[in-house]
Write a structure and sequence with these properties.
The chain is an all-alpha fold. Helix content is 78%, strand content 0%. It has 5 helices and no strands. It is elongated and about 55 Å long. The chain binds MU-OXO-diiron (FEO).
Amino acid sequence: MNADVLRAINVQINSELRAWYQYLAMAAFCERDKFTGAGRWLKQQSLEEYQHALKLFDFVLARNGTVELLALEQPVREFKTLGDMFKSVLEHEERTTAQINDLFELAFKSKAFVEMTELQWFLTEQVEEEKIARELVAKFRLVGDDPGALLDIDRELGARTPPAA
Ligand code: FEO
């Protein structure tokens, strides 16, 4: 594997694991305040991030590269409101999209064609991840702090099905 691309993919594995950890911290925040639907949604989102990390992890090994796991930052554990928390989910996903774009550009410039094919999946996934987060931010903005509407959204979030293995 191209050494620069390998290094950047290892950094991306760390980013996906940071997202896993961050969303788990958000799930804990929601469940503490008894927004159990949002908590369930975030646990599943967290699992998806773990699967993203594992997808790159397995890819590096399949390419005979070395996986280097890095330290994880402490996640943010407190938010002003549920709506604010989902704003940070959206910001996080927008940052992830920018990271994947940079990674794809590096693979392109390095003529790392196999890596480009692998990263294509992540580019497509980010479109969906951002779309879902953006819709949730809009919903929370619409309902404001109306308790009944917040409970409705919480119920809706709780209906999310687990990610495919
Ligand atoms: Fe791994 Fe939410 O993107």
